[in-house]
Amino acid sequence: MDFVKQLQSPTLAFLIGGMVIAALGSELVIPEAICTIIVFMLLTKIGLTGGIAIRNSNLADMVLPAAFAVVTGIVVVFIARYTLAKLPKVKTVDAIATGGLFGAVSGSTMAAALTLLEEEKIPYEAWAGALYPFMDIPALVTAIVVANIYINKKKRKEVAYSIGQESFSEQLVAAGDYPDQKDYPSSRQEYLSQQKGDGDNRVKIWPIIEESLRGPALSAMLLGLALGLFTRPESVYKSFYDPAFRGLLSILMLVMGMEAWSRVGELRKVAQWYVVYSVIAPFVHGLIAFGLGMIAHYTMNFSMGGVVVLAVIASSSSDISGPPTLRAGIPSANPSAYIGASTAVGTPVAIGLCIPFFLGLAQALGG
Amino acid sequence: MDFVKQLQSPTLAFLIGGMVIAALGSELVIPEAICTIIVFMLLTKIGLTGGIAIRNSNLADMVLPAAFAVVTGIVVVFIARYTLAKLPKVKTVDAIATGGLFGAVSGSTMAAALTLLEEEKIPYEAWAGALYPFMDIPALVTAIVVANIYINKKKRKEVAYSIGQESFSEQLVAAGDYPDQKDYPSSRQEYLSQQKGDGDNRVKIWPIIEESLRGPALSAMLLGLALGLFTRPESVYKSFYDPAFRGLLSILMLVMGMEAWSRVGELRKVAQWYVVYSVIAPFVHGLIAFGLGMIAHYTMNFSMGGVVVLAVIASSSSDISGPPTLRAGIPSANPSAYIGASTAVGTPVAIGLCIPFFLGLAQALGG
Amino acid sequence: MDFVKQLQSPTLAFLIGGMVIAALGSELVIPEAICTIIVFMLLTKIGLTGGIAIRNSNLADMVLPAAFAVVTGIVVVFIARYTLAKLPKVKTVDAIATGGLFGAVSGSTMAAALTLLEEEKIPYEAWAGALYPFMDIPALVTAIVVANIYINKKKRKEVAYSIGQESFSEQLVAAGDYPDQKDYPSSRQEYLSQQKGDGDNRVKIWPIIEESLRGPALSAMLLGLALGLFTRPESVYKSFYDPAFRGLLSILMLVMGMEAWSRVGELRKVAQWYVVYSVIAPFVHGLIAFGLGMIAHYTMNFSMGGVVVLAVIASSSSDISGPPTLRAGIPSANPSAYIGASTAVGTPVAIGLCIPFFLGLAQALGG
């Protein structure tokens, strides 16, 4: 019953609608320029929301839980990188994107937890809800950076391999058999000249992080975050970015549904791994956050209700902020993998199993 | 007085504004990507409105009037196809598009009728207003399908003719005079190979219907209809698709005004036929619906007020849902023909003459 | 304190944000189709606002002050054309665009003046605020026309020069050395044939004015103005163009910030002239309007409060309507010049110095 209701929510409805019309062979096309501006507006809005929430929160009180939220968001991505991605035939970028989505936070899952805490009369800090951007944004940034590092390493390997392969042809070039060098791949040229300077074969991490932060997705999100933190964008946020959010998201979900449909076949041999991951991961992520929350509970008097909130936002996976960010930040990742894992399994597990579990755990420990 | 007011409504004002700036040689251009997304949003909204209205209505009560609305919507298109389109020099696609617009429903004409019924204290079913999508959407779908069937048949004839013409050149090809066959039209190649399989020369209707339904216009409208019927898109409908509708429509009307201006010359020799059609058609369409409504009156106790509503929505022609749908669905049709017929003649006739006529008829028969 | 608040306003915040992310090398791109439609919507909205304000105002009462507002708006542009543009190394188009921005009106500067007048209990006509479109729109139109005349004259000179240069090559052509004339610049051909008809070398002004009015920027603004004046677009204005304005402006300001950053280097040798102009111009413009206002005061009994309003809107420079108009109307002008001059110096001078100055002047003269 509740599951049907969930499927009828506009976000999911448009996603499924996109899959259905793609399956029926619709010729509907949303122009790329429109997708670009929608992604820009969605990510700017996500950044603005986070920035305004952080600016309005009392950082002194929440410094330790906030730091733990950041740590959890980052750790969740690395867990996916070194578990899900290592499973047979699972594509690494898909696994990293899935980790990013599970690190990001679902507002509605958090809202369900807050409602339940109030019903059970378990007290929690008023700012507990403001913890979510501290986990959400670092998780998505980490996923994009880690994916870009992986993609770069892979490219280098391929180039190195192709250099080995081409050694023979290079001798031919030297011998004058290929007088025309116009088609010489410039990227390899760059690589070779770079090699001279470097003197070694390691991928430099920092330039890739810089590159990721400069990409359109993280630029927009961090711009929104900075504007939310340091300026007063409330008027334009309330009149424009916030009201347009759900509507623009519905269009993008339709596009992602069509894209997901065209790539759903890739999941044939790996779907079971995504199911296994999506059932276990919410508990693992929640337990990490719960453990860190208990440290804050004993050292800073962080309430048990707050610990539950931290655990629940860790076990939740984003249906809202995540997909547009990952689509723009890791375009090669398969949306049917990461959205499928999060929406079809991760979110029901988080809402139906993790919330009662962490609530019970808190009552057992704290009561 | 009322006519001036009508012209000042935003929808018409932007249409006329577009014609004026086109006449003055403005270089204003609305990018095609923007027109595409506007059409998508308008048609999705039209579908959503219809779908939500149908979901919220009690289908059991209204099954017969709703079926009659569907029938009327379809019949209206075929009337235009076999009357207006047969008049000398009238282009068939323009006539079919005009039929689609006259089959579609004007919300404001319907609202005028409902107001008058209330003033005259003639009772009608509360769900009578919900009959409009049952006429509106089938009429537009039928128009697009019928136009595509016509265009396909015409192309086949031209190909067949050109084959006859080219038989001589084909002999030359066979004789080796045209060694380079790269430019051979692939569509004809397809046609020839298709011919082999078919063994006859008839146009297959079903693939064209499928093709029409898969096109961007009907995809978006039927997607909206399905989402409105089977999911709960109210939140995104109320916050996004509905409030943006009039504004986006104003931009598209401006574009259509500019397009209509550039093609108004085509109407020089046929304008009189459009005037004749636009004066007679509202009465004919209304009488068909009135007759069908009387059947429902005698068999299902459908109120006389409801019969009037059905007749009025049949005599009305759409200024809102129709133009964007037809622009996307039958791009070759001349907007100055169909919008001119509907706006300049059809709508004033429907509001000023048909509403009082059908009201009087109902009072004469039912009182 | 107030300066920091000003910088935190969404419009400026997004402008600075755009400069910062451009400086950091962000790869964020807003598609050109999106910029086009944003500019269209902003300029249509500016025109609609002006048109509706003029339609709702009692023109008979305000005819002289309104005429003086128009005169001031036009004069301001010519002042910039013959002072700022003549300073060493200042680019003429940049100077004209800056003049246009200083002729256009800042709504918030005007609001500050109206508030102060009320606090000081100085009476002014209720329609005084409606004077602003009479100065705003003529200033922007004049700037675009004057810039286009300048650009045309410059092109003619270059062509004339290149004809001199090419006389030798033309002899070669005549001698048969250049058999292929395909690449012959068509614009010069046009020029030559035009020369024959003209018989002289003067630039014709009227075709350039027509051309400017037909351009996308002024087309949209004048369309909005006409629709606001002659039709009833209030419903679509209130539901669409007005609420979307600030949000769309924020996106365009971001784009203009990125563009301004890439051209800020051009200002290195001329920045001091822009500072000098931006400090002096608000006083000069205000005094002209104040003088004209005094004429209306003595002849038509225009209140002293109204004279102050007229002077303040003349000394203000537009942060809202100006930038999008000039970006579309004079694309070659450097936004870091005109926005920098207006925002960084002109507006603070107008608010902080000109408002008290003209208020004191009115009290000294009128009290």
From TrEMBL, chains A, B, C:
InterPro entries cross-referenced by the UniProt entry: Sbt_1
Coiled-coil stretches noted in the UniProt entry, renumbered to this chain: none
Keywords noted in UniProt: Membrane, Transmembrane, Transmembrane helix
Membrane-spanning intervals of the chain: 12-43, 63-84, 96-117, 129-151, 273-292, 337-359
Superkingdom as given in the UniProt entry: Bacteria
Name the UniProt record assigns to this protein: Sodium-dependent bicarbonate transport family permease
Lineage: Bacteria, Bacillati, Cyanobacteriota, Cyanophyceae, Nostocales
